[in-house]
């Protein structure tokens, strides 16, 4: 008996995760990944904060995330915990308020342009100001955004050691966690990714500004990890290039099934223009 295509499509769509804890990942040590951000909001009738997506702290007053996480949100409803530390769901004292959110027009069918920037509201709290200054120094020393890194190394360089990080759940439909987790993944080319995910779920083409990564051992992003980073270590140096933003995938932790990431180098002109324009306006 043939199964109707529409029925198959519905099953696929319900199993897609829009990135929670890294499945089969390891608990990160404090200060391992200072770029890690938990984006949180307060639900009506609930005293505690709720983590809903991740982000990537770029330094200064900017966070990079996924458009499907924040594109339609009121900035006043979002708080950010920055630095990769254990999440405190009961206090807002260590959180940063968001002033503005910028995002490209997301294609809801292909998930193309799944990139957003959040500008942190300038704080008057000396402790918060000093904390960001310390993080800025660490990040400038050890983390850089990808520009043409993927173009040169994506398909040919198998020596890259790449990780995904996040606060999402450790199983499909689970709750977010308190501690940042990370896991090792491998980059995979467009054609094998398309074969494994199929035409409905895979990126539409090689020029879509998206790429895939997977694990032979079931390490994967899950719900709530969206907006967090895929990073690759440069020559075993503890210096990292931030290659991608966790975007979407099929289920959580399915062995040899890739997840899809937004290619940061593809969007660098947009990222730099937003930051430069608004930093200039803020300085006037």
From TrEMBL:
Cell inner membrane is among the record's keywords: no
Q: What is its main location?
A: secreted
Q: What Pfam families does UniProt report for this protein, alphabetically?
A: Trypsin (PF00089)
Localisation per UniProt entry: Secreted
The UniProt keyword set, sorted, is: Disulfide bond, Glycoprotein, Hydrolase, Protease, Secreted, Serine protease, Signal
- On whether Protease is a keyword of this UniProt record, the answer is yes
Which GO cellular component terms are attached? extracellular region
Question: Signal sequence span per UniProt?
Answer: 1-21
MF terms from GO for this chain are:
serine-type endopeptidase activity
| Chain ranges of the Peptidase S1 domain | 22-276
Biological processes per GO annotation: proteolysis
* Source organism, top-level taxon: Eukaryota
**PROSITE patterns cross-referenced by the UniProt entry:** TRYPSIN_DOM, TRYPSIN_HIS, TRYPSIN_SER
PANTHER family with a match to the protein in the record = ACROSIN-RELATED, HYALIN
Family that this chain belongs to: Belongs to the peptidase S1 family. CLIP subfamily.
The protein, known as: Putative trypsin-like serine protease
């Amino acid at each position: 008996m043939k199964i109707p295509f529409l029925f198959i499509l519905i099953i696929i769509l319900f199993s897609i995760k829009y990135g929670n804890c890294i499945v089969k990942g390891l608990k990160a040590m404090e200060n391992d990944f200072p770029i890690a951000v938990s984006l949180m909001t307060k639900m009506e009738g609930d005293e505690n904060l709720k983590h809903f997506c991740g982000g990537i702290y770029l330094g200064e007053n900017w966070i990079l995330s996924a458009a499907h996480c924040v594109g339609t949100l009121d900035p006043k409803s979002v708080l950010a915990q920055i630095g990769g530390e254990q999440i405190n769901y009961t206090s807002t004292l260590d959180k940063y308020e968001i002033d503005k959110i910028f995002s490209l027009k997301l294609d809801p069918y292909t998930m193309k342009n799944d990139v957003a920037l959040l500008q942190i509201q300038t704080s008057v709290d000396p402790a918060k100001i000093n904390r960001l200054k310390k993080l800025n120094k660490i990040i400038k020393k050890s983390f850089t955004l990808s520009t043409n890194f993927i173009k040169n190394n994506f398909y040919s360089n198998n020596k890259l050691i790449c990780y995904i990080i996040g606060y999402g759940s450790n199983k499909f439909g689970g709750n977010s966690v308190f501690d940042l987790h990370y896991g090792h993944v491998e980059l995979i080319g467009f054609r094998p990714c398309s074969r494994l995910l199929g035409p409905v779920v895979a990126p539409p083409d090689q020029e879509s500004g998206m790429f895939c990564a997977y694990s032979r051992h079931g390490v994967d992003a899950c719900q709530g990890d969206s907006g967090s980073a895929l990073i690759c270590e440069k020559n075993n140096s503890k210096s990292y290039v931030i290659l991608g933003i966790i975007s979407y995938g099929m289920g959580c932790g399915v062995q040899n099934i890739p997840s899809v990431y937004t290619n940061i180098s593809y969007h660098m002109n947009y990222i730099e223009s937003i930051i430069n324009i608004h930093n200039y306006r803020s300085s006037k």
